[in-house]
Amino acid sequence: MGASVFVSGAAGAVGSMAGQFAALAGAKRVVGSAGSVEKTKYLVDELGYDAAFNYKDGPVLQQLQSAFPEGLDIFFDNVGSDHLAAAVEVLNDFGRVALCGTISAYNASEHRAVPVNAFKIVTKRLRMQGFIAFDHEDLRKDFDSRVGAWLENGQLAYRETVSQEIEAVPAAFTGMLTGANTGKAIIRLADDQA
Ligand SMILES: NC(=O)c1ccc[n+]([C@@H]2O[C@H](COP(=O)([O-])OP(=O)(O)OC[C@H]3O[C@@H](n4cnc5c(N)ncnc54)[C@H](OP(=O)(O)O)[C@@H]3O)[C@@H](O)[C@H]2O)c1
């Protein structure tokens, strides 16, 4: 059987793809977190997540424990802080974490470190790997053909939040940090037909 997978920041550009990729790769259960009821509904109804929770509804740890009563195998983290600390508690032995981003810290006016239980990382033999997408340019051809085929076959759903013109950049950027976007945040600088 496949792995159980949790994706934080799941309704964003990266997260919405990560959850669908996991399902297409054979995960047995994919759960996402996002910051509104509309977004959690989007995850389940449109992206095919098995379940989703709103991290603003209560402590992430409790919601994650309810979502994975049999424990978690893989965590794809876009958020950091409370999400990462909770996942360390819920991950099964030999669980794996792909550290993609820590968006909860980017716009914080004061640093709010959430302690991660390092003892559990040791005793559960967890593996955590940060990565930068550009490090993996060698895989681009494989990515393009695999993901291109999924897109052509209609196996991937996505949304874009499009703003118009360069003047929209500041609001669109800060909106992305506060959850105004669903899917990829895009600024359209000129009409496609021009
Ligand atoms: N490693 C790499 O190579 C790489 C490449 C690209 C992006 N990234 C990282 O991947 C993550 C997602 O990037 P993206 O471009 O796809 O952005 P995005 O997810 O489309 O937009 C950011 C989302 O983060 C959520 N968010 C903001 N503050 C939060 C908080 N305190 N706690 C939880 N969620 C919060 C908001 O959604 P809600 O409404 O759900 O709160 C917001 O819509 C970022 O951390 C980014 O730095 C990494």
Strand content: 15-25%
Sketch the topology as an H/E string, one letter per element: EHEHEHEHEHHEHEHE
CATH class group of the largest domain: Alpha Beta
Question: Helical percent range?
Answer: 25-40%
CATH topology heading of the largest domain: Rossmann fold
Overall pLDDT confidence:
94
Name the CATH architecture of the largest domain. 3-Layer(aba) Sandwich
Report the end-to-end length measured between terminal Cα atoms: 51 Å
Read across the widest sheet, the strand sequence of neighbours is 3-2-1-4-5-6
The total count of strands amounts to: 8
Taken together, the total number of domains comes to 2
CATH 4th-level superfamily of the largest domain: NAD(P)-binding Rossmann-like Domain
Give the count of helical stretches: 8
Low-confidence runs (pLDDT<50, min 5 residues)? none
Principal-axes geometry comes out as globular
Structural class by secondary-structure content: alpha/beta
Alpha-carbon Rg, integer? 17 Å
Q: How many strands, which pairing sense, and closed or not: the largest β-sheet?
A: 6 strands, parallel
Helix and strand arrangement:
Layout: E1 4-7, H1 13-24, E2 29-34, H2 37-45, E3 51-54, H3 60-67, E4 72-77, H4 81-90, E5 91-99, H5 103-106, H6 118-123, E6 127-130, H7 140-152, E7 160-164, H8 169-178, E8 184-188
Parallel strand pairs: 1-2, 1-4, 2-3, 4-5, 5-6, 7-8
Helix pairs in contact: 3-4
The structure holds NADP nicotinamide-adenine-dinucleotide phosphate (NAP).
Residues 9, 11-15, 34-36, 39, 55, 78-79, 100-104, 131-133, 176-177, 179, 181, 185 line the site of NADP nicotinamide-adenine-dinucleotide phosphate (NAP).
